[in-house]
TrEMBL record, chain A:
Lineage: Bacteria, Pseudomonadati, Pseudomonadota, Alphaproteobacteria, Hyphomicrobiales
Domain of life according to the entry: Bacteria
Name the record gives this protein: Uncharacterized protein
TrEMBL record, chain B:
Residues annotated as signal peptide: none
Sequence similarity: Belongs to the GMC oxidoreductase family.
Source species: Allomesorhizobium camelthorni
Keyword Flavoprotein: yes
The UniProt record lists the keyword Calcium: no
A Pfam family annotated for this UniProt entry: GMC_oxred_C
Gene3D superfamilies given in the database record: FAD/NAD(P)-binding domain
The organism's place on the tree of life at top rank: Bacteria
Cofactor(s) in the UniProt record: FAD
Protein name listed in UniProt: GMC family oxidoreductase
Molecular function (Gene Ontology), one example: oxidoreductase activity, acting on CH-OH group of donors
Residue ranges constituting the Glucose-methanol-choline oxidoreductase C-terminal domain according to the UniProt record: 338-466
FAD dependent oxidoreductase domain boundaries: 17-213
SUPFAM superfamilies documented for this protein: FAD/NAD(P)-binding domain
Amino acid sequence: MTDAKTKRSTRRSFLRTLLAIPATAFFFRNIRLTEHDDIVEVDGWILKRSDIL
Amino acid sequence: MIFQDAAAYAASGFAPKVCVIGAGPAGITIARKLATAGIPVVLLEAGSNEWTEESQDAYKGVTIGDPYFDLDSTRLRYFGGSSNHWAGWCRILESYDFEPKTYIQNSGWPIRRSDIDPYFDETYDILGLSPFRPDVPVTDNFRLFQVIKSEPVRFGEKYAAELEASKTIAVVLNTEVTELSGDGRSVTGGKLWSRGQAAGEIHAPYFVVATGGLENSRLLLWSNERSNGGVVPNAAALGRYWMEHPMYITGDALITNQAFELDHEGEAFFMPSPEAMARLQLPNFHVQLETAPYRGVKALIANMTCYAAPETTEWLSHKLGQRLQCTARVHMDWEQLPREHNHVALSATEHDAAGVPRIALHWKKDESDRRVMLEGMRLFGEEFARKDLGRIHISDWVRNGEDYPDGMELAGNHHMGGTRMSDDPKLGVVDRDCKVHGMSNLYVGGSSVFATSGQCTPTTTIVTLALRLGEHLSRTISNS
């Protein structure tokens, strides 16, 4: 598996994890991945992933 | 010498080498520079010593396109010009601003910032500034830069006594040039209007139009129409490529590690690196953090619940609460691209008291404005989080591409372009010396010569360019 595919897979896993938690899915209405693995945009907030894990 | 009208001036027998039209920051600076070389200058001011409704009326006009300020409130028409309501914020265009960019059509000036460097000390002296502190890199792609919030210089007030005492500069108040006459090679004279009536003509070997970033286009468009192209023989760009600095509150910030210096008003200014702009193909912009007192935190969070998911806000505030230092509004100003269709035109139906057509300003933001706002906020927010300086929230209207909100500032009252500088007469009105292409004795001073606008307030660069033009004209006259 290439690095790019690994990254995409990690992002998908992350999203799946988020959406699998009902409370989190309820909290976050709009999630956008960024070009950085450690940063995610949630409802317009630009957060570190560690903020929401 | 200061004369109160054209009749008093005519009776003086003063013989100018240069006629400078407009006594704002550019006109006064050019006149003073010429005077230091011993060159006699007549400096015409359409208004009087103070604001009057009658004078200001000539600035009325309409804007077609996006909402904009009333054209008779975004500028002032009396001695000292729009410096009379200037806020005093200073910054000079960056080196990067002068350079052409492959991804921005019609970008690039024919001069570089090194061409205006020699005039910085004199500019600082005029505006009462200390040299700017070096920029401070705060993230990989942003640097903190200094905006000097100076005590604003009111040029009319500051230099009134000097000009009154001068034997080389003749200021004529209450007197405007309604139109210049030209034969396609040089200006041959200007029709005067003084105290509500025609007042003959003025003649001088050289003319400088310095009536402001909207009015320069108006005077030259009307003069050109009346003289069948004899004043601006290459008029393809005349009035066009007009620019502003759109500015809006685009989000909020929670600051958890204030590792950067705030100014005395609790504000900090950040500008992207040239590399970041090139990579994202963005024009220049700046992000301004306007911090709120700590007691404002609860109010800010409460306000956020109006537009963010309430649970998100609650969760985030709790998460960050332990290390929250302060909050801030995020304010963005950006460089509007030079678009030919944004232009100053003459009204076909409305005229001022002197019979000059009023301005019809065609001005509209476009997709590039949306893009720099959103991508700029995202870039800044990502950098802010990665460096753990805090967290940024982008306003919903920015993310969702909704209408620009009412009740915000809209723009900076910065009127740029219309007689832009270019080596190519098809793309500009003046050459690198601010001389009108094809004309031997006609020059333009002020922000209308800006080829691009950068992200900063224009007055400092206006004064610097005026000093450069004054020196160039002094040299030209001395050598002729």
